[in-house]
Amino acid sequence: MSVDKIKLGFAPTRRNIFSADAAIEYADYTRKKLDELGVDYVDIKDVNDDGLLYDDNGMNKIADKFQNAHIDGLFLANENFGTEYECARLAKKLNVPVLLWGPKDEAPAADGSRLRDTQCGLFAIGKVLRRFQIPFTYVKNCDLDDPAFEQGVRDFIKVCNVVKTFKNTRILQIGPRPFDFWSTMVNEGELLEKFNISLSPIPLTELVEKIHEVVDKKDPEIVESENTLKEIADVKISDKDLQMVAALKVAIKKLAKDYGCNSAAIQCWTALQDEGLPVTCETDIHGVISELLVEAATLGDHRAIFADVNCRHPDNPNGELLQHLGVFPFSTAKNKPTLPKSHFVFDYPGSVGFQAQDGNYTLCRFDGDNGKYSMLMGNAKTCAGPYEQGTYIWLQFANLNRFETKLVYGPYIHHMAAVRDDVVPVLYEACKYLGVTPDFYDPIEDDVKAYLRGDSSSILK
């Protein structure tokens, strides 16, 4: 599975009244550490003799260079006190997520003099970024070898990926929402106005025509998909039905490409999740956004399941069934998937069935109504439960009543995206750049903040 790529603009900064040599030295230390971590970054060593940000001339050159490189995030490294207004001016021009950090100051010299005053400058930069109304992410003032630095940089890269995904989302909406599903109603104009998220609506007849087209042309992707399904799943449907399952997948994939979409929503299930093109059912637009974001928070390293929150566990008071008609990626399967002849809800062939893998999951739901949008997030772990048809997982919550109440009071509905990873802090931090209110179904915000400031390596207890 390919990992998403993110490019940072690296802008180390200094202020003239402090040692330029010390700032240059620490900027080079920072570059070396970024190289060790494998971070993809654009440097500024060519903009002036110091390779540092400290004046308008350099700032404008840096802005041009970063814009031409299409960076996804800006890393302001405060190598001495730093020039706060140039940092803010640069960030304002670029309009990307901002990471602020500076190396811990060394002990004063024997005569009591200091070379850098980095921490003091961080306070000043933070204040001026606020004056410019620039949201930013802060990693505590620490040494480069402190685990908090690596954790902060890696998490920031994931945050950048969430923001990049969100701001570049275009959803292929195949047909209208089903009449009975008023809960999946969305405000298309508001999504565009607030978030630049656009829909590309097409009628179901266009999908049918595309299916006939790929079948009539004997598109080789159909045979490839059929062979893949036979390899990874227990196929119990007829060859004709299998061909239609594969043709549906190929048709949606081609339509998404034609309309420049990174996801889709339709009334029924599909099998494109493993290829990085999430497709939600019941035409759940907010649901597919949730799926895109929670996958982006893993840098595309994990695919998300998308499920109905269905019913309580028969024995476990904090257990809950998450299930749907085959929209889980095959890569999330615990057991060999099955393509059955029918399902107890709908008598249609080919709705995939399997249990999802065990582990700790992050759950996510982007949603809104009445002009306000928020993101519900939290964790749950798998637990044993009865067999279910379709794709399913049993999850145990810290307190199921809290989770249930959140879904009832809203603005959320019973559809959740989930990944087998702990990315709650990444989603929480991303919200400040998205203009979305973070929300939790468990009282973990203090734990998330502790993690983000470097006091903890995990929020999972």
From TrEMBL:
The keyword Cytoplasm does not apply. One of its GO terms (cellular component) is cytoplasm. GO terms for biological process: monosaccharide metabolic process. Keywords: Carbohydrate metabolism, Isomerase. The keyword Ubl conjugation does not apply. InterPro entries: Fucose_isomerase_N/cen_sf (IPR009015). It comes from the Bacteria. One of its GO terms (molecular function) is intramolecular oxidoreductase activity, interconverting aldoses and ketoses. This is Fucose isomerase. It comes from Companilactobacillus alimentarius DSM 20249.
